[in-house]
Write a structure and sequence with these properties.
globular, five-stranded antiparallel sheet, Dna Ligase, domain 1, mutator protein, 14 helices, alpha+beta, single chain, DNA polymerase, domain 1, about 450 residues, DNA damage, Alpha-Beta Plaits, DNA-directed DNA polymerase, DNA-binding, DNA repair, transferase, 4 domains, five-stranded mixed sheet
Length: about 450
DNA sequence: TCTGGGGTCCTAGGACCC
DNA sequence: TCTGGGGTCCTAGGACCC
């Protein structure tokens, strides 16, 4: 935690709805709801006029319509939101080289990294107000709320206290007492499930939380969340402002107007999703090894199935093939309301790097030295380090096998000696099996 | 009035290796 | 014949955030 309130949290007010009102003057001063407008839609953002009728984010659009039938219901124009967000973020970068966007409408700004010093409450409030004016001008009239404090936690909570168009600076040294009277749910990371567990332990406010020992909190919530919450409750937060956070996964999902049960229809939808995921991977110069299919049943229970490839891919055909297989393995009886396809275990090198010319592969083969005791056939009949398995992701040496799985070592140009990956032997990815030497007569080579 | 779409992080168990 | 513990990878599910 810092000695000066040098972290700002900037939060644009009713962002999506505000952009719509900016671009369409007839909507100004009127209730506007942006979100899913179909039968199963939910509200993303409600303008302040719509909030007067009880319309809230994450509420079903059906309920919003019943509460506020005369509002304008809009599906959203994300290109416009992205462009506006970029203009706003640029204003923050003018103020400091170190900003951390959390979403299109939120970011931390590090004033310390801007070389500013002697930051007392008055000075920070003035800086915040200037920033809000700059944002207003650059965005075509949008307002923001700003919180400032000695840590991310305090800045984030403060920005929420005087919305819209507020500025709240929490004086250094007053953090714990600032938090104490608040509900535990103001602490980021404490959602409904955690709040309920805490309630059962007699904890409703941060002050209640401050009474608990670390041991007790860890018992209630586990090591990670317990220790985190223990620190945050006493305003002990030294998390740094971090600019470029790397993408960990890319996914597409869709909720259908009515539940779908036809496997052929779903397979075709999965193909389209695989293509869109692939496009986004390629645009971001990323590829990934794990393909995940997500299904949501009529009763809202959600399942995921995933499969990890030998090497990263951004190929729509491969993603689609794996997604189809995972979908086939999924239970869709009774119909599903949602289908999703995603790719994770991302790498910033692309698929082509996995395929290398045979010359390089041979050079690598020479370099491979195996311990003597491994130069024997394993349980599934492979010679580890000598047999080669051909997969659609490239060729790799068998590194060991048994119990229905085979471990394959891949050689890649960029990352020799390459990843070691495990496949189920029945995995269709193992299209062909080429032993370097013929298996002995009694050897039952694992079925491909 | 039933519950979006895009993410992140954590946990837990099993397989496998040393 | 039984008994280990640590570490990594993978899978599945859940909580949470905007």
């Amino acid at each position: 935690m810092r000695s000066e309130p040098s972290i700002l949290h900037v939060d644009l007010d009713a962002f999506f709805a505000a952009v719509e009102q900016r671009d369409k003057p007839s909507l100004r001063g009127k209730p506007v709801v942006v979100g899913g407008i179909g039968l199963r839609g939910v509200v993303s953002t409600a303008s302040y006029e719509a909030r007067k009728y009880g319309v809230r984010s994450a509420m079903s659009t059906a309920e919003a319509r019943s509460r506020c039938p005369h509002a304008a219901y809009l599906g959203g124009r994300f290109d416009a939101y992205r462009a506006t967000s970029a203009a706003v973020m640029a204003q923050m970068r003018e103020l400091s080289p170190l900003i951390e966007p959390l979403s299109l409408d939120e970011a931390f700004v590090d004033l310390e990294a801007a070389g500013l010093s002697g930051l007392d409450v008055t000075k920070v409030a003035a800086i915040a107000d200037q920033l809000k004016e700059a944002i207003h001008a650059a965005s075509g009239g949008l307002t923001a709320s700003v919180g400032a404090g000695t840590s991310k936690l305090i800045a984030k909570i403060a920005s929420d206290l005087d919305k819209p168009n507020g500025t709240v600076v929490v004086p250094p040294g007053t953090e714990a007492e600032f938090l104490a009277p608040m509900q535990v749910t103001v602490v980021p990371g404490v959602g409904p499930a955690t709040a309920q567990r805490l309630t059962m332990a007699g904890v409703r406010t941060v002050a209640d939380l401050q009474q608990l020992s670390l041991d007790e909190l860890v018992r209630q919530l586990g090591t990670s969340q317990g220790t985190n919450l223990y620190r945050l409750a006493t305003a002990d937060d030294s998390r740094a402002v971090v600019s470029d956070r790397e993408t960990k996964s890319i996914s597409i999902e869709d909720t259908f107007e009515t539940d779908l049960i036809d496997r052929a229809v779903l397979a075709a939808i999965a193909d389209g999703m695989a293509r869109r995921v692939s496009e986004r991977l390629q645009k971001a110069q990323l590829s990934g090894r794990t393909v995940t299919v997500k299904t949501r049943m009529h009763d809202f229970t959600t399942h995921t199935r995933s499969s990890t490839l030998a090497g990263p891919t951004d190929d729509p055909r491969i993603i689609a093939r794996v997604a189809r297989r995972l979908l086939e393995e999924s239970d869709i009886s009774g119909g599903i309301r949602l289908l999703g396809v995603g790719v994770s275990s991302l790498a910033d090198w692309i698929q082509d790097d996995l395929f290398i010319d045979s010359e390089a592969a041979e050079a690598e083969e020479v370099a491979v030295e195996l311990p003597e005791q491994r130069r024997t056939r394993d349980r599934a009949g492979y010679y580890p380090g000598q047999d080669v398995i051909h997969t659609e992701y490239g060729e790799g040496w068998v590194w060991g096998s048994g119990r229905g799985r085979v471990t394959v070592r891949f050689e890649t140009a960029r990352t020799p000696p390459g990843p070691v990956r495990t496949f189920a032997i029945e995995d269709p990815a193992l299209a062909v099996h080429y032993p370097h030497r013929p298996p002995e007569e009694d050897t039952d080579v694992a079925a491909g």
